[in-house]
Amino acid sequence: MEGQYSEKVMEHFKNPRNVGEIPDASGVGNVGNPVCGDIMRLYIKVDDKEVITDAKFKTFGCGAAIATSSMVTELIKGKTIQEALKVSNHAVAEALGGLPKIKMHCSVLAEQALRGAIDDYMAKKKAQGPNSKG
Ligand code: FES
User: What integer pLDDT is reported at residue 127 of this predicted model?
Assistant: First the structure.
């Protein structure tokens, strides 16, 4: 099985970056894949310039799901919300040196978790009104 994965996937699987949660997160995305049952939760912290200053994740899932969540947190840190919206599952898979075809859906989970966190952030911001910061 291991031979299917790039070195980078294995490396992120063994040493995932940014594992954990952000208690006062600006946005949280929760997704699950009903077929395999894997679950991913992604937290983002956004400053008043719409820059993602921190990202963390918790994934209960396969190796590829862990590697893609780890990579997505690395990719979005320092990006603006608008830039982060353009991060696709293909970009994540590419940054990992590719994924086996049957594992591409795991990277979709990472993309959906990111979108979910951004949606949550936008909804919270809207609820706060235009004059509030943070
Ligand atoms: Fe479920 Fe990878 S097998 S996310």
Answer: 92
